[in-house]
Target: Succinate dehydrogenase / fumarate reductase membrane anchor subunit
Amino acid sequence: MTADTLVPPRTPQGKASIRKKGPNLEKWGWVFMRVSGVLLIVLIFGHLFSNLMVGDGISGLDFAFVAGKLANPLWQWWDVAMLWLAFIHGTNGMRTIVNDYVSNAKVRRILVVALWAVAAFMILLGTLVVFTFDPCIPNLSDASILSEACKAQG
Model:
């Protein structure tokens, strides 16, 4: 190609023109963002509907309501799926932004590793909270329904 010829605009050049062997992680990240986005819409609106529209509505939201939901395995898994998808979806989006705007490869790598480390830690903590939640904590008021239920447990 001579210097006076125009290269078509989407022609890969430099390192981008060499396709590496192995899985195309950017493509699978793109697919994940679309699929997780749709699943998150279903999970979030199901969560909002069950909390705000069913039963007493927003006035019924209190510690006992949350404790009752977290005692049900369906809602535990629902909340964990929402937690995992939201954190992975958000972290992958932030990774894309870092890759687009940080030009220094070393800084970009540090930021991406930090993003995934924080996300993994938060996912771990959130999952532990959902599956190990115990509403029978000391110092609940005597008027609480949970207080009576916890006394009955032992």
User: Anything to note?
Assistant: Residues 26-138 form a domain with the 3 helical TM bundles of succinate and fumarate reductases fold (CATH 1.20.1300.10). The mean pLDDT is 84. Residues 69 and 75 are 6 Å apart (CA to CA). The longest helix spans residues 25-53.
